Amino acid sequence: MALLQPRLSLKVSQRQVLTPGLMQMVSVLALNKLELKEMIDAEMVENPVLEEIDESVPMLDAVADREKQLERGAEEAAAPPKDSFNEVDFGSYFQEYLDPGYRTQPEFEESEKPSFENFLSQPTTLSDHLAWQLGALTLDPALFEAAEYVIGNLDDDGYLAASEEELATAFYQFPENLSRESQNQSSEGQEKEQLHRAIDLVQNLDPAGVGARNLRECLLIQIKAQQREFAQLYARRAADTEEDPHGSFRAEAEARLEERRRAMEVAALIVDSHLPLLQKRDVKDLARAAQITPAEAHAGIEFIRTLDPRPGRLYNREQTRLIEPDVVFVKRGDEWTVSMNEEDLPSLRLSHRYRRMLVAEGTDKEVKDYVKERFRSALQLMRNIAQRKSTILRTCEVIVRRQQDFLEHGAEALRPMMIKEVAEEIGVHPSTVSRAVANKYAHTPQGVLELRSFFSEGSNGPEGADTPLSVLKRKVRKLIEDEDARHPLTDDQLAAMLGAQGIRLTRRTVAKYREDMNIPSTHQRRRRDA
Predict the structure, then answer these.
(1) Which of 168, 300, 464, 472 sits most deeply, having the most CB atoms within 10 A of its CB?
(2) Which residues contact 505 (CB under 8 A, 6 or more apart)?
(3) Is the pLDDT of residue 9 over 90?
(4) Is the Cβ–Cβ distance between 158 and 312 less than 8 Å?
């Protein structure tokens, strides 16, 4: 039986390892201008060796040299005596001691004002808007707290996803959520009724439709709200028109008001009982099922189009993302040039003060080791920033050479271009080009565009002409927009029409493009009038 014994063996192998410097280079390349500025500011705080070059502000080294020169000059020659009379600030004396009644007020009074940031305000959210309305009402504490809880459980669209049972279980099982007064007023039998009243209260707040459990309830709440407003307006108008001597105008107004009222009734009927048929856009079957005329069905559908299926989006809007171009494409004469947009980016340099510490004899070894490590980190960052600039410029130069027609004539002249092709031309890996164009924008004559928008697959036509994917989708959308709603185009017909333009696409490819653009199918787009 062989015994296990320790044995030393050597093996030579090659493997790729990402060093910290290489990892930083990859991360720096993927940053856009705003993100790079934030990273440089953070590095300058952590690394004292890095300094920002600012011509308007003297550097510490320059200030120190200037002070040494002044001290040396003071030692060589004595300063001339100063007249104390010239050092008196007479203006401050007069301004302070003169009678305010006889003082001439300056044109612009200098006073300490609050910061401009105090005047900035955040956009009002849906919860804030509903809570403000709730605070203006006089309610008992139990109902007020239940309504606040309902508002806190609305999603971004304004819908209440949880059921009344779930809300009651989650709200009333924690007594700390309720004040002492509301605990005394509420009992187990009143909890569900209280929560039901709170939901009804929230559903009557502005905007109409919030607090609904589904699309049907949301649309019905909006229709009922407009019906109440219409009833009040109709009653007021009827009282005003009693003394109207023009009977013809009164009859015409009455007819229009009656059409509006009937459209609301039909809309409520469609939403309440025939919402699936409305989603299919089958006007003929919808009119037959609702036992109304096609004209009334059309009027009801047009009224439903004015409703908002997502009432909460009016306040829960996404914040606008700030976009600043990283590169600029400019035509100078007959040639296109690429330049980096480095405005507001800090210009870095290494501190001379810390350089002198490395060569000074009295510096401790630990201090020298720390400064050396900081110098290596700073040099690596500056090299990575320079490498990022070089890679982006080379990538954009290839983009400009290949897309000159697009820059001059617009989207229809965009040519297909793959990331792999650009990577082979500049001699880097495709992942490097992908990082170089990620989340970066270019200022062009056609507007501020994302660099990734220049890369698109193509489809070969019968004559070998390539058409980019974005142009293909735009052509498909244009054909669908120009179709007859009563006889919409099928995917086969769309493919045939594109083939007549020299673009070969299969039916499945056209269907894929249509689905990517969220365009309904032929059956869903068909409008049946009779």
Answers:
(1) 300
(2) 459, 472, 495, 498, 499
(3) no
(4) yes
In 3-state terms, what secondary structure has residue 329? strand
Residue 269, sorted as left (phi over 0), alpha (psi -120 to 50) or beta, turns out to be: alpha
What CA–CA distance (Å, rounded) separates 149 from 127?
11
> Any bridge partners for residue 213, and if so which?
none
Distances (CA, A) of 331 to 210, 404, 410, 450: 52, 10, 15, 19
Q: How far apart are CA 446 and CA 407, in angstroms?
A: 6
Output phi, psi for 337, to 5 deg. Answer: -120, 155
What is the dihedral angle through the alpha carbons of 112, 113, 115, 116, rounded to the nearest 10 degrees? -150
The letter for the amino acid at 478 is: K
Question: What pTM did the predictor assign?
Answer: 0.54
Question: Can you list the alpha helix ranges (DSSP code H) found in 47-187?
Answer: 60-76, 90-97, 126-135, 141-152, 164-172, 180-185
Half-sphere exposure of residue 260: CA atoms within 13 angstroms, side-chain side: 15
Q: How many beta carbons lie within 10 A of that of residue 356, not counting itself?
A: 11
pLDDT at position 461, please? 46
Which residues have CB under 8 Å from 273's CB, separation 6+?
Answer: 290
Under CATH, to which class is 459-525 assigned?
mainly alpha
Could you report the per-residue pLDDT of 365-374, keeping only the tens digit for each? Answer: 888 888 888 8
Contacts of 263 (CB under 8 A, 6+ apart): 296, 299, 300, 302, 303
In the chain, where the domains are located: 126-203, 215-314, 327-454, 459-525
